[in-house]
């Protein structure tokens, strides 16, 4: 994925933002240098291009259109990840013009979203209401839209978790899915404990299973990983912290950097060569002998224990819980089969089911809702996985 992070300035001051230490007050951008770098990278990789931030819409309509047009001219589509507050009818028309998929960052209805925004508590409440109105507008205008929710103590424990669960049901009923990311700010009173995060994921998974809701990550990605599907979020893929293959960042001066999630107040330019150094270290240390190594690869170096990329992801106990639970569900369900088509006596279709290649007499058709989602740092299409 090519992330255009030409401007890291933002109209919000979210309390857990991982870019807070490197955020400038205003953007300084060499437009032609950025565009040339994006063209060169796309010619080499054909990776999805995403306008990112900071807050990308804070760049202003002219620059946003420049970047979305660039992506559209190269790939026939475009994508943006936004807090959603600045969306208006003009932006809607730009999104339509350049076939833009919109990823919206919001942590639920008020008060679940109280850590996001700027100003007083009342200001943040009004901002949340405006973003939800803009979400309605995106859906009414049939703009492909997905959600990234960050789980923390303001939306994933006690009564707040119940509010969040009801909201997730309402989103799913409208055809919206996305990702449920753990907050990793390092700030006491914001981040969940592993036990709290396990409880939140467990309750949400129970809810989704009861209601037949699919398409939300990390559940979707863990199921895909267990089935041998390579199209999983970067958290469950091997990562070189000096190359970050899932996220190539284009900076405001046209420089090429690594994923900015990793290094706090520092920028690092991207190494031209990918290595497996982190994987080799983890296989001899934190992850030695782990039954889920080939599905998880130690998780994200940007969320590593002690912020040390040589260590495994601090949420390892949480992911192990989910891998075990979802593996048992897959064992119970058995090979993927259609629930909507009648049983057929014979099939000549070959498919991959985990690592076993075989013929199946009752195959589910590959499905896509046609919506591209920004899920962490990887592009994929929704599919029926459970």
Descriptive terms for the model:
single chain; 386 residues; alpha/beta; TIM Barrel; four-stranded mixed beta sheet; four-stranded parallel beta sheet; 10 helices; disordered C terminus
Task: Give an overview of the whole structure.
The protein contains ten helices and twelve strands. It has helices at residues 31-45, 61-75, 89-97, 121-140, 158-173, 194-211, 219-226, 277-284, 293-296, 316-333; strands at residues 2-5, 49-51, 78-82, 100-105, 145-151, 178-182, 248-251, 256-257, 350-353, 356-359, 372-375, 378-381. The strands form four sheets. It has a four-stranded mixed β-sheet, covered by helices on one side. Helix 7 (219-226) packs across helix 10 (316-333). The two termini are 26 Å apart.
CATH superfamily of the domain at 2-240 and 371-380: Aldolase class I
In which order are the strands of the major sheet placed?
2-1-7-8
Roughly what is the average pLDDT, rounded to an integer?
A: 88
Number of beta strands = 12
């Amino acid at each position: 994925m090519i992330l255009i992070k030409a401007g890291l300035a933002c109209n919000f001051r979210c309390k857990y933002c991982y870019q807070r230490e490197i955020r400038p007050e205003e953007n300084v951008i060499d437009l032609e240098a950025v565009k040339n770098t994006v063209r060169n990278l796309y010619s080499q990789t054909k990776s999805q291009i995403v306008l990112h931030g900071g807050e990308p819409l804070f760049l202003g309509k002219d620059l946003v259109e420049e970047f979305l047009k660039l992506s559209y001219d190269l790939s026939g589509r475009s994508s943006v990840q936004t807090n959603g507050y600045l969306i208006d009818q003009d932006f809607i028309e730009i999104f339509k013009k350049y076939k833009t998929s919109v990823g919206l960052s919001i942590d639920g209805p008020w008060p679940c979203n109280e850590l996001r925004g700027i100003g007083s508590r009342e200001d943040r409440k009004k901002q949340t209401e405006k973003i939800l109105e803009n979400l309605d507008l995106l859906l009414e205008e049939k703009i492909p839209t997905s959600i990234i929710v960050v789980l923390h103590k303001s939306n994933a424990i006690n009564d707040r978790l119940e509010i969040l669960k009801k909201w997730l049901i309402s989103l799913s009923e409208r055809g919206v899915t996305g990702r449920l990311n753990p907050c990793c700010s390092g700030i006491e009173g914001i981040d969940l404990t592993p036990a709290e995060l396990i409880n939140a994921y467990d309750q949400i998974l129970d809810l989704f299973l009861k209601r037949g809701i699919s398409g939300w990550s990390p559940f979707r990605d863990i199921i895909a990983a267990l089935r041998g599907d390579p199209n999983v979020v970067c958290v469950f893929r091997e990562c070189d912290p000096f190359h970050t293959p899932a996220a190539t960042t284009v900076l405001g001066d046209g420089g090429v950097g690594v994923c900015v999630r990793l290094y706090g107040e520092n920028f690092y330019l991207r190494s031209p060569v990918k290595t497996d150094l982190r994987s080799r270290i983890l296989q001899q240390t934190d992850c030695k002998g782990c039954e889920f190594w080939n599905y998880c690869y130690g998780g994200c170096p940007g969320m590593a224990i002690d912020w040390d990329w040589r260590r495994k992801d601090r949420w390892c106990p949480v992911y192990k819980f989910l891998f075990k639970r979802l593996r048992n569900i897959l064992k119970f369900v058995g090979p993927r089969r259609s629930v909507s088509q009648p049983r057929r006596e014979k099939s000549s279709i070959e498919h991959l089911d985990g690592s076993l290649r075989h013929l199946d007499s009752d195959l589910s058709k590959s499905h896509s809702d046609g919506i591209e989602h920004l899920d962490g740092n990887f592009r994929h299409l929704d599919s029926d996985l459970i």
